[in-house]
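Lab notebook page, bench 4
Experiment: in silico fold of construct C2
Operator: M.H.
Input chain length: 264 residues
Purpose: comparison with the prior construct
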Amino acid sequence: MAIKNNRSKVNLMMATLLLGSFITTLAETLMNNGLPMIMEETHVSQMSAQWLNTGYMLVAGMIMPLAAFFMHRFPLKRLFTMTMGIFLIGTLISTFAPNFTFLLLGRLVQAIAVGINMPLVTNVLTIIIPAKNRGLAIGIAGIIINLGLAIGPTLSGVILEFYDWRMLFIVLLPFTILTLICTQFFVENLLEPKKISADFQSVLYAIVGLGSLLYSLGRLGESDSNGIYTALFALVGIAFIMIFIKRQFKIGKPLLLYGTGSNN
């Protein structure tokens, strides 16, 4: 693979991918300080407003198991363009949302990109980075991605001192567009796309299991949540995840065990 022998191309490609991942993870916690302002303007309860964060994590968690499948099914440049395009659409929906329903819809669309991008970067690193440098590269990538989560609340606090909550989305737009432009120049296709199909039952088990478990964890922070229902969702989630794991050892093409295409 030619790109592996060209350090400048590798650096530019990883910078582009990490920029996209940083932006999408930043968006996750950027909303924290904006909830009170959104509640006041859209006239929703704290429980409803909290779904802007809970729903974001829920959708992202449900999509993550499909990331490896998408990486092998589509060329990397097209896949990353699609995910950042989805994130851009979600950001635009939230920016111009006339009510809370559209705002939540935009957040959920944003989360689809997060669910793909976070594991995608790690998979790409295992392909283009030599084994002796792979640990360091993955560590640096982890720091950059998690930096987005860490600075989100502080950055949103500064923004909200001078602007309303819509600026939390507007500030993401130029960086998202920049990432899309850089993708066209610096991201190269690494693997030959394969005409593979995802195992429907595995996808269903993963979505139901992770969705139920994450939903139950989200309910723990609600003061008026029903403990029995919360525990029930947690048990259903764990059960489906166990069924999902068991099925991966039985089928010929498990959802989570697609090879990276490189053993170097």
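Observations: Residues 259-264 have pLDDT under 50 and may be disordered. Residues 80 and 183 are 7 Å apart (CA to CA).
Next step: discuss at group meeting.
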